[in-house]
Amino acid sequence: MISEKHILIIEDDKVILKFMKLALETNGYQVTGTDQGSIGLNILINQNPDLILLDLGLPDIDGVQVIEEVRKVKTTPIIVISARGRENDKVLALDSGANDYITKPFNIGEVIARVRVALRNQEQTIENKQFTYKDLFVDSDKRIVKVADQTLHLTPIEYKLLELLIIHQGKVLTHSFIQQKIWGYQTQDDYQSLRVFMASIRKKIHSIKKDSQYILTEVGVGYRFIDE
Ligand code: CA
Residue 20: pLDDT band by 50, 70, 90 thresholds? Predict the structure, then answer.
């Protein structure tokens, strides 16, 4: 039997919190709620929830700061549910490491659908947990990446990107496919943030081994992890 997924809701509107909690529990999820960002971060460390639903306007710390703190230690999917509907707010939250963004007022059915997608994406991982290609080594349990025996320090988003390309080794992944998988959402910036993340991964790899090439750019289409 599949174990119950644990969802953490950080939301200071008590009515919304109660409503989301009830709806998620009805759909078979275990739910913990708090109205404070700092308490949410403690729950994250102590209880390791499977997913976070996050409001941005919180009484103690700003939601974007919560995202940044989470991303220093975890890749737990974060779905922002906020009244801040401007494009800038969305991009800021997503660039900080949120996986998805829903604007208030929301449809609870949509929230549950997005939760399901985010959890499914999270479960997809490298077969047999370990992967080697030439000088590159990845351990998906420990989240360790090495190039020529040296540890490669990737941010959680960079790690997810590399992992996604490895899972689909040899296949061209389009920009929009990658965005949907990583952020659960298609940004409107003409894939600029994706390019920035890919450039950063390459730069880090090249700082260890100058001419290593694992990822090919398919111009105007997307990226492919080399399989020959
Ligand atoms: Ca609020």
Answer: very high
pLDDT value at residue 1:
42
How far is ligand 1, taken at its centre, from the CA of residue 45, in Å? Answer: 22
- Residue reference for tokens 């929301």: 106
Chain segment 148-163, per-residue pLDDT in tens: 999 999 988 899 899 9
Rounded to the nearest angstrom, the distance between the alpha carbon of 56 and the centre of ligand 1 is 6
The Cα-based distances of 197 to 10, 14, 32, 122, 205 in angstroms read 28, 37, 32, 19, 13
Domains along the sequence of the chain with CATH: 6-123 (3.40.50.2300), 130-225 (1.10.10.10)
Quote the pLDDT of residue 110.
Answer: 92
Ligand 1 center to 161 CA (angstroms): 31
Distance in Å, CA 105 to ligand 1 centroid: 12
Q: How far is the CA of 55 from the centre of ligand 1 (A)?
A: 6
Tokens for 141? 């349990």
Whether the pTM exceeds 0.85: the reply is no
